[in-house]
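Morning, I've got a small favour to ask if you have a moment. I owe you a coffee for this, so here goes:

…
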Amino acid sequence: MPTESPTAELGATASTFSLPATDGNTYTLDTLKGANGLVIVFMCNHCPYVKVAIPHLIRDARALGKIGINVAGINSNDAHVYTDDAFDRMIAMAKEWHLPFPYLHDESQEVARAYGAVCTPECFGFDAQLRLMYRGRIDASRKEALPDARRDLYEAMRAIAENREPLDEQYPALGCSIKWRV
């Protein structure tokens, strides 16, 4: 059964972190931030919603990078139970898809808890001052891609980069629940 993200408290400041990535580097909020903002996407390897969303996320990450907004993926799932989400499999996925953004491992799950993330893929879009301006979906695709779907994440973040208000209506993310440790 899919999980839907709750309504966001827009304007909240991004929580700091330091996480290892599949490229061998460790990233912090400050090293990830672009000139015009940052998108953090809670994602994983095994979720069918993520698998469908990856091509659109890659497309949007490349386009956002051109306007000064960086993207980072974070996997917070319990890899002891969901072995497809283990760090070595994250490395393989990043290489297979040629991810144009860092793919970070939140083994402790502290970052997901700090952000209040509940599902994958779930997007948190921040402006240049790292204030939350968007929380929701990449687009309307779910378990199957909708090729002509409006690019909700991209359009909201483009507005933010241009110092305009993001979309009036923000649609919640819908996907697999984050797999918490028990």
